[in-house]
Amino acid sequence: MCCQVGGATGQVTIHPEELMDATTAHLVDFALSSDYTQLPEPCVHECKRRLIDTFACAIGAYEHPVSRMAREMARTSQGTPPASVWGCGWHTTAEAAAFANGVMLRLDDANDGYRVKSGGHPSDVIAGIVAIAEAVHADGRALIDAVTLAYDVYCSCCEVIDLNTKGWDQPVYSVVATVLGAGKLLGLSREQMAEAVALALVPNMALIQTRRGDLSAWKGCAGANASRNAVFAALLAQKGFTGPTAAFEGQSGLWDAVGRFDWRVHVGPDAPHRITHTLLKCFPVCGHGQSPAAAAIEMRSRVRLGDITAIRVETYAHGKEEMGSDPSRWAPTTRETADHSMPYVVVVGLLDGEITPASFSDARLADPAIHELIKKVEVVVSPDLSARFPESWSCRLHVSMAGGPPVSVEVANPKGHISNPISDSELDGKFRGMWKGYGDERQCAAALDALWSFETVDDVAQMLKLFVVRN
Q: At what angle do helices 424-435 and 441-452 cross, to 10 degrees?
């Protein structure tokens, strides 16, 4: 006997022995089939690089006001299984730790990115997966396996459908990716994994309104919320909770909300693990601002700031949509809007010759020099740059000056792009730079050594103690 449920394009047949739709079954089976011993060495190395980059981002944002609020929220919760809040070592629930740590790693907008049809920040999955790894005392190899499979799930969704223009935000695919990584670490059965996916996805659809108009603090918290929800869903499934059947393909499932699409994860010789292909950032700004930031900093020594009459930024269509189409991008009042403002990023790069988290302080946001120069910025779409995207994240910057010829700079791909990678030593520099003011150099070196040798870690919970620098 079997039952049928109405889908977006007809009937989906669900057999009693297969109480999940085909999409759920594929994702669950992919996660359960993952195996650290089958990961190529370059993939393991890149996973360790993403862990280093992610912890660097969390360290750098440790004193951010929203980070402090998230930690205080976590401090009010206690339970089992426990997990720690990075930096202070407080123990809280796994889901509260996932949220607090996820907030810290994301707030400065310095963590990695990936975009094909949709996009986002795959490293958002790390907070939830680390929380579960700590709670179950997993070793480094198990965590690398879980993070890698979660990246594959997250990025494969970005490759097959543009959920963002349909009104849905990154947490939709992040919560699914995270729950599969968390479920793998918890040792969930196939049936429990399917329930966890449904319990993560159905209650937690997220609107992309989070990233429209004048941006709020929630922009940096949405991914953390997906991690929290995923951890909670995995723990619910472990306890025996069941979720809605056919979360993707059934009546009023995801297909009904966004249209039918084939969320299949393919990994092989022609499709390497996606963790090897995400963009690492040199600047704490939106990924589409990396090339404009680099161009502005390069141009600074070639222009006379007081003589600038016009600034023209050529970018691809999606870059303009995200960073140069809303009026708020010419008058940012929050850090979140400013790091998603192409005019602001370019002007600060020209004025300061660098872009750091301090570039978005309240004092800089109110600086009259920035406001005067930002009025001269125009952001335009270049058809040829649009045609190259997303393989290339390029821009051209043109500055006109009184009494002299215009100056132009083109950045074909920013540092950190797969075609222009950040070296291991440069990544070390990013980590050490974020650590300054956070802890001492000896502790920094010990943490870095542990991350570079993560596959030898016997207990993730013990490794995390290396990051504790506060009471």
A: 140
Q: Which of 222, 256, 276 is the last residue of a domain?
A: 276
What does the DSSP assignment read for 241-293? ----S-TTTSTTSHHHHH---------BTTB--GGGSPBP-SSSS-GGGHHHH
Helices 22-33 and 171-186 meet at what angle, rounded to 10? 50
Residue 12, domain member (yes or no): yes
pTM (global) more than 0.90: yes
Q: Is the pLDDT of residue 294 over 60?
A: yes
* d(C-alpha 181, C-alpha 145), whole Å: 8
Helices and strands per DSSP (H, E), number in the chain: 20, 10
Residue range 52-93, pLDDT digits in tens: 999 999 999 999 999 999 999 999 998 888 999 999 989 999
Q: Which amino acid is at 304?
A: R
| Cα distances (angstroms) measured from residue 444 to each of 19, 45, 130, 432, 467 | 48, 20, 19, 7, 8
- Buried-state track 359-371, b at ≥16 Cβ within 10 A, e below 16: bbeeebbeeeebe
The residue range of the domain holding 373 is 287-411
Please return the burial class of 410, using the count of CB atoms within 10 Å of its CB with bins 0-12, 13-18 and 19+: middle
Q: From residue 221, how far is each of 18, 224, 362, 377 by CA, in Å?
A: 36, 5, 20, 30
> Is the sign of the CA dihedral 144, 147, 149, 151 positive or negative?
negative
**Do 294 and 261 lie in a common domain?**
no
Beta bridge partners of 207: 168
Q: What are phi and psi of 279, to 5 degrees?
A: -80, 125
